[in-house]
Amino acid sequence: MAHINLLPWREARREELKRQFLSILGLVVVAAIMLVVLADRVVNGQIDDQRARNDYLSQNIRVLDAQVAEIKDLQRKRNQLIDRMRVIQELQGNRPVIVRVLDQLVRTVPDGVFYTKVEAKEKTLSITGVAESNNRVSSLMRRLDASDWLQDPNLDSVRAATMYGDQAATFDLKVMVSLPQDSEGEE
Predict the structure, then answer these.
(1) Cβ of 122: how many Cβ atoms within 10 Å?
(2) Domain covering 109-177 assigned CATH 3.30.70.2830 in the classification
(3) Which of 3, 105, 146, 156 has a CB 3.0–4.6 Å from the CB of 172, allowing a cystine?
(4) pLDDT digits (tens, 9 = 90+) for 20-42
(5) Which UniProt keywords apply (predicted)?
């Protein structure tokens, strides 16, 4: 015999599928919310970790900047000290040269010639003086030219003057200081 169901089974089936769909939809929504919350916590944790790393780096950068500034200050002081030492060494090295040059000035001055002013600017000496005659000035020029330490005497001017009632010549000349080749090893 055939079994006939006269109840509205399709309607009940639809209601059952609808209830299953809504419960699955609710579970999916809950799962999605939980995933979003979980993802938010993970991302926020990573952001906090990165901020902590950035803060650590910023603090170390400040420390390093202070150290770099101190190093630059020390280098500046070191360079100043090196410059001072160089000047002192040059002065120490030039001390014998100055003595030799003054000795050569004394040795080259002929009788009847007097220096009134001697100025040094770098390697040039400017000499002002008085001579009994122009011949004495010429003799001075020859002696300066023959010196190992003095070279290229250049007479700027000679003027006639009277000194203690006698005729005299005042002169201005420039001469270059040169270091002889064998004297550089002596320093």
Answers:
(1) 7
(2) yes
(3) 156
(4) 999 999 999 999 999 999 999 99
(5) Coiled coil, Membrane, Transmembrane, Transmembrane helix
